[in-house]
Recover the amino acids of this structure.
């Protein structure tokens, strides 16, 4: 007969055994434990200050749903403000379900939010844009998402942009960048990236939480999560191969992952200072005369100056 495990802090049945912390936890104590660990990450890396406005980027998936739920809880205690942002990238079915999940979560938590629809603005979805400019979908999507998040944060006076990258995401990104010797990428990996000119500070409060834990948290707290993954995601790419080779419900690799993420986060601080030029169209720090986003606009035969004028009104956020 299977032996039942009980919570280390109460007499309820345990739902998870966290070996690195030597505890078995019931649903309630697990949620409390994860919240405390995120709080420690916020304080240790000084990710948020009192009275700051944090824009949380919500994809509709389990990681960012967990992030928003926990940040919302901590915002009272640590005295900061939380707002939500979702970007609809225009991929049929996937984007509709993702937007529904993100908006349900914003409403359930009573959080002020904004949805930016790429198709409404460009007249094209991200796959259509990538086809038109003949660039891979994932890098085009990443570029547009990063730029829009920064744009909204910059023009609506946010202090921080928070994303739901978890320990396994950051670990696999570091290892992949190391294996392909991408020094540029390696130098940019960080739990905390400070604001640099028009680039708003980015934070990753789930940097020390593993993927198994965000999944467990979202499930136990019944958070609205889209049960779809992007059809364009490269399931056979190196990054996911690394991630899944090191997925460990037994937490065997947890200390190794944690050490690597902590070390790289220290090494890469302030790396944006290498961007000594400013884009001649939008003014953001860049390493060439025109930033990658404005180059994309030019490739789409859009005039960056009039695009930015119109986009500023569309992307601004009433807070
Ligand atoms: P991914 O690269 O898809 O694993 O996403 C990493 C993080 O970026 C997520 O946890 C979110 O915080 C953010 N993110 C990804 N996609 C979106 C989206 N469509 N809208 C808003 N935020 C997003
Ligand atoms: Zn308990
Ligand atoms: Zn630009």
């Amino acid at each position: 007969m299977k032996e039942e495990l009980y919570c280390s802090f109460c007499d309820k049945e345990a739902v998870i055994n966290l070996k690195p912390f030597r505890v078995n936890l019931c649903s309630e104590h697990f949620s409390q434990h994860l919240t405390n660990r995120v709080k420690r990450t916020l304080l240790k890396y000084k990710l948020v200050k009192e009275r700051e406005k944090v824009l949380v980027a919500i994809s509709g998936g389990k990681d960012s749903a967990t992030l928003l739920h926990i940040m919302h809880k901590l915002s009272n205690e640590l005295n900061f403000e939380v707002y939500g942002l979702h970007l609809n990238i225009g991929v049929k079915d996937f984007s509709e379900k993702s937007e529904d999940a993100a908006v349900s979560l914003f409403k359930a938590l009573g959080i002020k939010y904004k949805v930016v629809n790429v198709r409404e603005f460009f007249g094209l979805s991200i796959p259509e844009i990538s086809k038109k400019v003949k660039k891979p979908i994932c890098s085009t999507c990443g570029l547009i998402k990063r730029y829009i998040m920064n744009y909204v944060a910059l023009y609506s006076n946010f202090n921080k942009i928070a994303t739901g990258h978890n320990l396994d995401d950051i670990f696999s990104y570091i290892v992949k960048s190391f294996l392909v010797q991408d020094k540029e990428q390696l130098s940019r990996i960080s739990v905390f990236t400070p604001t640099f000119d028009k680039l708003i500070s980015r934070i990753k409060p789930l940097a020390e939480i593993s993927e198994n834990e965000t999944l467990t948290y979202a499930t136990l707290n019944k958070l609205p999560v889209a049960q779809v993954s992007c059809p364009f995601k490269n399931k056979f790419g190196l990054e996911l191969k690394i991630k899944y080779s090191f997925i460990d419900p037994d937490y065997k690799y947890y200390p190794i992952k944690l050490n690597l993420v902590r070390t790289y986060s220290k090494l890469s601080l302030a790396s944006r200072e290498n961007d000594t030029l400013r884009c001649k169209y939008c003014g953001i720090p860049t390493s060439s005369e025109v930033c990658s986003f404005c180059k994309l606009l030019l490739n789409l035969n859009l005039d960056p100056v009039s695009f930015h004028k119109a986009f500023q009104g569309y992307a601004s956020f009433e807070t």
User: Anything to note?
Assistant: The longest strand covers residues 81-88. The radius of gyration is 20 Å. The mean pLDDT is 93. The first helix runs from residue 27 to 44.
